[in-house]
Amino acid sequence: MCYEADAAPPAFSPATHALAEAAAIALTSTDGTVFAAFLARPEHPAGPGVLVLPDNKGLSGFYRQTAVRLAEQGFPALVVDYYGRTAGADPENRAPEFGELPDLLPHLLALTPEGLDADLAAGAARLRALGSAEVVALGFCFGGRQAFRAAAPRFGLAGAVGFYGYPDTLNGAPGPTQLASGLTAPVLAFWGGADEHIPPSAVAAFDAALTEAGCEHEFMTFPQAPHNYFELTAVQHREAARESWFRLLGFLSERTTRRTSDSTSGGHP
Question: Which residue in 205, 209, 222 sits closest to 182, CA to CA?
Fold first, then answer.
């Protein structure tokens, strides 16, 4: 569990782009499942689309606001919900208890890699259909783990960013560390050095696995920061959150720069 229902992302940058849209939408996965999503688009995009992957509670206000923050910086952003197959396509119809572990657990346990992959692919496809030549995954906690997985070639992403995504084996399922040999998109990862859920040894093992795989990556660890330090009310960790935000924006801008450079050079290094 990561963010509470009333959590909000910190705001460090004034809006530089007017919004064309910020609204709930529904998407259809490749297996026919209809699931909830939220789309925020700038009138004049200035960078890659961002596929926002929530924590294990699914689509919530924190992620809608995060999508808006990104769109205000010129990056179209689409948040996906994970629970269309078991909880329906309208998060607003779910009971308030849905976000608490006893009610959430049956839905969480029903998730499959195949279903998650299908929903992520549908979200990325919608961003591309709206004009995003490049798409980057951005995930938090459970979503960070999924973002790292999405660095695999089958998703065709320009990068993957994860805030405190658990990288190791979980409930017997291989994690990004075990899958690292198949990851190719550049990875940017943020970690809290005081995160009680992710030990430094797990971060080090993921780093080593990506290095061995030849996958470009950058890890930023903030020694005093806990899990979910990127949050408005976590004022004691504001500098860590600020540094993370501007590095995230830089990573997204670099994807734009690379695309422009490749086009200018005819795709040659």
Answer: 209
